From TrEMBL:
Gene3D superfamilies: paralog of FGE (formylglycine-generating enzyme), Transferase(Phosphotransferase) domain 1. One of its GO terms (molecular function) is ATP binding. It is an enzyme of class 2 (transferase). Residues 34-296 form the Protein kinase domain. Pfam families: Pkinase (PF00069). PANTHER family: SERINE/THREONINE PROTEIN KINASE (PTHR24363), SERINE_THREONINE KINASE LIKE DOMAIN CONTAINING 1 (PTHR24363:SF0). ATP binds at residue 65. PROSITE patterns: PROTEIN_KINASE_ATP, PROTEIN_KINASE_DOM. This is non-specific serine/threonine protein kinase. InterPro entries: CTDL_fold, Kinase-like_dom_sf, Prot_kinase_dom, Protein_kinase_ATP_BS, SUMF_sf. SMART domains: S_TKc.
Amino acid sequence: MSYCLKPDCQKPQNPSGTSFCLDCGSKLLLRSRYRALKVIGQGGFGKTFLAVDEDKPSKPHCVIKQFYPQAQGTNTAQKAAELFEQEAIRLDDLGKHPQIPELLAHFTQDNRQYLIQEYIEGQNLAQIVEKQLHFNEAQIYHLLNNLLPVLDFIHANNVIHRDIKPENLIQTKEGKIVLVDFGAAKYATGTALAKTGTAIGTILYIAPEQARGKAIFASDLYSLGASCIHLLTGISPFELFDIGENTWVWRHRLINNPIDDALGRVIDKLIENAVNYRYQSAKDAIADLNHTDPTISFTPSALPLQSFEYDVVSLSITGRIIDQKRHKAEFFAEDLGSGIVLEMVFVPGGTLMMGSPEREEGHADHERPQHNVNIAQYSSDKLLLSLDDGLNATSLVSQTNNFFFN
């Protein structure tokens, strides 16, 4: 499929590989390399497309953001154009971070502005909570531990995102949280912070001072906290604040979903209405989060598990393969930062044959008698088996043979 980028095209869908739109005759490639495949988002100021970069041998996916306001010549459209231009600058400055999409290109074609950026494969947190109704404690810890360092990074570069919300947080297949959509971001220089600007952001998650055009670094932390209580309860933040009492009541809406008191205190400090009582920096929030020392009982559904396939082989005494079977197992990848990813395999219950048969050559006395060992499903800290020490998933399963069961 090849999608026409002309906004008023009546039949934008074209066969794959087409160079010109069969309906309106417009070029289907941007800069002779970027081909739109389908629309993945749209609003009053343009569209976002899933695309492919045909200039690279691997034909990787990318994202095309097209700026084309429906209302031409208005002050709002002019402000939107400025923000679109600023997004390119922010991404160019920040996009080398592994949890921020990289800017690939920024240009004008056919009197329309375009951003080409890295495609992040995964689901945003709004999509995830819609499917499972609410996040649990483990998932919120995972979110905060992933995203607070990203906010610390962008704030250290004098950028305020101004639109932290579940829709702008994408969880990859590896479990990493990626922050997207810097269209509302602004530089936080001393002069800029002193001025009252335009109130920008998503109303459900916006901090009180940001709603008055005075966004600061702590405004992003407020939006993150508001996102957390939405994800924990599955309820709009509007319904989690008691106007009469002037206080948050999100804990009352946790249904069979308890969280640790220490984590609750971190969230409460993120969503303080008064700026002076809120966390002043992401570093402060990280320090408190690291001191909560949670004891979490993990279940497979609490983690973004992925599947992999492996072979289990049985060998004869001479080393000849006499049996080979294909199996599946689940694993979890935790991004520890600095390019380090820890991979762990989920260990269900089963039976393990331990020891050596009496006729096996070279066996030691302590390896007998050969016997079955029943192992219950691992829970809590025993749920995850680390693949460290040079082992990968395939070699680990091969060594344990029937330790894993379908």
